Each structure stands twice: as C-alpha cells, then as structure tokens.
Amino acid sequence: MSEDILLIVIKVAVLIVILLTVVAYTVYVERRIMARMQSRIGPNRVGPFGLLQPLADILKLIFKEDLTPAGADKVTYFLAPALAAITGLAAFAVIPFGNTIDLFGIKVNLFIADINVGLLYLFAMSSLAVYGIVLAGWSSNNKYSLLGGVRSSAQMISYELPLGLALVSVVLAAGSLSLGDIVKAQANLWFIVQQPLSFVIYFICAIAETNRAPFDLPEAETELIAGYHTEYSSLKWALFFLAEYMAVITVSATAVTIFFGGWQGPFLPGWLWFVIKLSGFIFFFTWMRATLPRLRFDQLMRLGWKVLLPLAALNLVVIAGLVAAMGG
Amino acid sequence: MLSDYLPILIMLVAASAIGIGGAVISWVAGPKQPSANKAMAYESGMIPVGTARIRFPVKFYLVAMLFIIFDVEIVFFYPWAVVYKQLHLFGFVEMLVFIGVFAVGYIYIWKKGALDWK
Amino acid sequence: MPDLSNLPYEQAIFYLVSALAVGCALAMILSKNAVHAALFMVANFGLVAVLYLLLRASFIATIQVIVYAGAIMVLFLFVIMMLNVQEADPRSSRGPQDRLFTLGSLAPLLGLGLLGALAYVALGVKQPAATSGGLVFANIQDVGALLFTRYLYPFEITSLLLLVAMIGAVVLAKRR
C-alpha cells in the first residue's frame, strides 16, 4: 500500500459517483428490459430513448414533500433510510474491479481496499443491512411496514447462513479471505467450474438477501402494500431504492469476483471484463424479476432452512474431502 | 496494516454523506404542507384499524435465536478454511466431528418442528 | 499517506474511539426508548470493533460486527418489538439517576466490584512495553493455526455448547 491519501479520497469520490450513476441506469435499463419482456414500451419520453429518465425521476423526488407519519419514531424514521444506503454503498469498498492501471504516470489500484478479511467485511456489511429495513418498518408506525420489516429481516438472516457456508468452500480452495487473493487464485480455473454447487447456493441466497424477485416478499404489494417503506416519500424513499440496487450490484460484483475470475480475462482491460460480467448478472436479475412468481413465506423459510442450509453443509464437507484427498 | 483500513474509513464517511445528505436534502427542498390526513398511517386509503404496534408470532424470535447459533458456527469455519491446506486430513476429521455434533442438533430442531412455518 | 501505525496517531484514534464507545454505552443505559438503547448498543459494538482493529485483531473485529451487531442485536430488536416495550413508565422513574439506583441495590454493588477488579488489574499487572506497529498477531491465519491445533478440545467442546443452546432455544420457544 503506497497510495497517497489524496488519491484514495479521489478514488472514493469517483467510485461513489460511478456507483450512483450505475444504480440510476440499472433502474432505467431494468424498466426498459422489463417493458420489452412484457410487450410494453417503457420510459422513452425524456431525452433520446428516455435516457434522461433517471435524472428526471431524481429531480422530481427531491422536490416531493417529505412526510413523517403521526406517531412515528422521528429519529429512527430519519436514520433508517440513511443506514440502508450507507451499508449498501460501503460494502463495495473491498471489491477489486480491475487490475492496477497507469493513469498519468501514477499507478492506481482499482479497488478501494484489499484487507485480509475482505470477505468477512462484505459479510458484516450485509448483516448490518438488516437494520435499515427493520428500523424503517418499526419506526413508521404502520402495521404493514412493521410486518414487512420483520419478514424481511427474518428472510435476510435465514439466507445469510447458507450464503456464509457456500463462501467457506471457496475460502477453502483459495486459502485466503482477501478478495484480491481470491481473484488471483482463479487465474487458471474459475471457481464456478470447480464448485458449481457453491455458486448456485450462493446466488440463490444472494437474491434473497437483496429482497428481489422471486424473494421480494417484504414488498408483496398484494398483502403488505409496499412493505417496510410504505410510509416513506421523496429522497428518503429513493435511498431505499439506492440500497436495494446497490445490494444487487454488490452481490453481483461479489459473484463475479468469487466465482467468475473477477476482472481477469483475455485481450480486454480488466475493468472492462469486470463491467461485462457485472452487466450479465444485472441482466439476469431483471430477467428473473420478469419471469418468476413470488414465493410464499412458508416456502421461503422451508427452502432456506430445510434445503439450502443442509445442502450447503454437505457441499462443504464434500469439497473439504476432495481438497484433503488431493493432498491439500 | 492499520493503514489498509483508512480507505474503508474514507468510504464509510463518503457513504454516510450520501445517506444522511439524501435524507436532509429531501427535508429541506420539499414543500411542507402537513395535514392530519397525510400524517395518517397508509392502509390503502382506509382509516387505520387498531394500533400499529402489533405483536407478532414467537416464530420470528425462534428464527433469530437459531440464526445466532448457526452464525457462530459458521464463523468458526472461516479460520478453519484459511488454514485447511496446512491441516491436511487432520483438519478434515476435526471439522467432521464439529459438523457431526451440529447435525445432531439440526435433526433435533427439525424433528421438533422448529423449522416448520405454519 | 500518514502511517496510522505510528504511536501518536494510534493513541489519538484509541482515545477518540474509546471515548465514543463509553459515550454510546452511557447513552444506551440512559435512553428511555428501548429501541434507541439497542441502537446505541449497536454503535458501541461497532466502536469496540475498531478497538480490536487497533489491536491488529482484524478477524475478531469483523466477528464482533457479524455476530454481536449483526446477529445478537437483531434478536434483541425482535424481542423489544415483540414485547411491544413502550417508553419507561413515567411514574416509576423521574430522572435518569433515579432509575439507575432503583434497579436494585445490587447493580451499583456489582458495578463497584467490576471497577475494583479493573483497578486491581490495571495497577497490579506490569505494563508491557509500548509497541509501535510491526506487531502483527491475531491474524485470521494465526487464529486458525492455534484454534485447530493447540486449542482443539475447547473448540470441539464449543460445538457441544452450541448444541445445548440450540436445544434450549427450541425448548423455550416451543413451550405453549
């Protein structure tokens, strides 16, 4: 680590701006693709192909009235969306999104931090993400918000377990928790090839962690209105959206980093490979949302506790056995 | 080594600026015309029924308790996985014992119906 | 870039974070709203994680966040919400000091005992020479290497403890 503090500040600022832009355009692209899949047109009025739609949406949201329902716990009601956005954005700090590049003669590492417990940091941020949601539900003084928040947190903690177990088997093969090392360990063979089942378990849990379809029960509008963010308006509501899409981007980036060789690839620069792989995942999230029906809550809990958890444990034992059999 | 964490601190500060800044901006920029109807809890346009501070099933409590126990278990796997290649077969056997004890507990809570959701 | 492992920097961070942690702990005790108290506790856990980091125990620091802040406090929040705890009854408590001592005379006694023990330890133990950086231990590799060789029996017994906890949880929640 020889990076100058100024360089780090600039890198963080640029990354945050890029992430916010990516979130805005992920929403746009999702709306366009969903529209196409459902034989609709989608947003196409603001700017060419509707490309300025995200900007228009954000401007509109800034100037909307910021309501706090009567009987709400004001401090917590204010903090919850901020907390959701903070944990969502901060998680990206450990993702390596490219090789070291030369920029105006300065060597720039394309990651914010490569710490020796990187994977656990990601895990910690996703376990803190529960707070934004459960506090939003509780502080709104609305029974649907509360039910949505509690359901959502029960869902997130239940799926954190198989997710953690699936990642252990990758650590087993890589021998490190640093995401930089995990990428390097895949120079010859991606972990998706070596451990396809770990990836499947990870990805199912990751979808549940992000509260996205088909695991979007917390927002099941037919039973819970909009779930934990029912009462929120203006930018506070947008912060929940930011958190949700940041979660999609972070779990996709994690999948790319851990199972798909990270930024590594032939011919093209590393960051471009990263963007290509990431886009594939984001498209997949949209595709699923347009295709799959939502699970029922009991089905969701059964899948998490009775199928994925034992499967992840079995997967770990088999992989550990194979690694030991091959002489470590 | 401590300096490795400085970028994370900066990232946390920047993320906090976005999170808290966003919540403040909407409060400053938006119009403020409060009314009793707007402040009412939203229940699809109906007058809210009863209190919002409802109690919910003890199942959620059980899930949270089991989550802690399994979470602690999984946390033990990480240092094990990192040094696994130095432990060879010995590491495999000791983790089998650990998982074995857990499997007993898991079967017990399954048989007791703690994992059923009705 | 400033080397944070330099002693003056490190001490400054230590005192700042410790003060904040103590502040959060006090706020947790004194706040009347149970959910706010729980949130102060989460903040406290986060700050203690930073203290672990200052001890070069990065693994313990992340575990502190994952297990304490991310799992145990979620359970606390669930319980608070489930029991529907409202603000403390105004009749039984007039001020923060009041409540501290009506908790039972045992609490101040226990507190004094703890303070005494801390003072005894602080005065009695020979202070290790101040170290500046360079000291790397409690790395996850080191934790693993020790835990799965020398401390193997405590580790395996932990699994039994967790098994007992699991049975206890089911027995508690299933009793109708």
Features:
heterotrimer, A: 328 residues, mainly alpha, two-stranded antiparallel sheet, 2 strands, globular, B: 118 residues, Methane Monooxygenase Hydroxylase, Chain G, domain 1, 3 helices, 0% strand, flat
Q: What top-tier CATH class of the largest domain in chain C fits best?
A: Mainly Alpha
Instruction: List the total number of helices of chain A.
Output: 12
What pair of chains forms the biggest interface?
A-B, 94 and 71 residues
User: Uncertain regions of chain C: pLDDT < 50 for 5+ in a row?
Assistant: 88-93
Structure class of chain C = mainly alpha
Helix share of residues of chain A? Answer: 55-70%
Which class of secondary structure composition applies to the elements of chain A? mainly alpha
What's the helix count of chain C? Answer: 7
| Biggest sheet: strand arrangement of chain A | 1-2
Short account of what is shown:
The complex is a heterotrimer of chains A (328), B (118) and C (176). Chain A is mainly α and 328 residues long.
Task: Map the helices and strands.
The complex is a heterotrimer of chains A (328), B (118) and C (176).
Chain A (H helix, E strand, L loop, with lengths): L4 H33 L15 H10 L11 H17 L10 E3 L2 E3 L9 H22 L3 H32 L4 H6 L6 H4 L1 H14 L11 H4 L9 H26 L10 H22 L5 H29 L3
Antiparallel strand pairs in A: 1-2
Helix pairs in contact in A: 1-10, 1-11, 3-4, 3-10, 4-5, 5-8, 5-12, 8-10, 8-12, 10-11
Chain B lengths: L5 H24 L6 H4 L18 H54 L7
Chain C lengths: L6 H24 L3 H21 L3 H26 L12 H7 L3 H19 L15 H8 L4 H23 L2
Helix pairs in contact in C: 1-2, 2-3
Would you kindly provide a written description of the structure presented here, covering whatever features stand out?
The complex is a heterotrimer of chains A (328), B (118) and C (176). Chain A is mainly alpha-helical. Chain A has one domain. Chain A contains 12 helices and 2 strands; from the N terminus they run H-H-H-E-E-H-H-H-H-H-H-H-H-H. Chain A has a two-stranded antiparallel ribbon with strand order 1-2. In chain A, helix 1 runs parallel beside helix 11, helix 3 runs antiparallel to helix 4 and helix 8 runs antiparallel to helix 12. The longest helix of chain A has 33 residues. Chain B is an all-alpha fold and 118 residues long. Chain B has a single domain, classed as NADH:ubiquinone/plastoquinone oxidoreductase, chain 3 (Methane Monooxygenase Hydroxylase, Chain G, domain 1). Chain B is built from 3 helices and no strands. The radius of gyration of chain B is 25 Å and the shape is flat. The mean pLDDT of chain B is 82. Chain C is mainly alpha-helical and 176 residues long. Chain C starts with 6 loop residues before the first helix and ends with a helix. The radius of gyration of chain C is 20 Å and the shape is globular. In chain C, 73% of the residues lie in helices and 0% in strands. The longest helix of chain C has 26 residues. Chain C folds into 2 domains: 92 residues, Four Helix Bundle (Hemerythrin (Met), subunit A); 38 residues. Chains A and B meet through helix 1, helix 3, helix 4, helix 5 and helix 10 of A and helix 1, helix 2 and helix 3 of B.
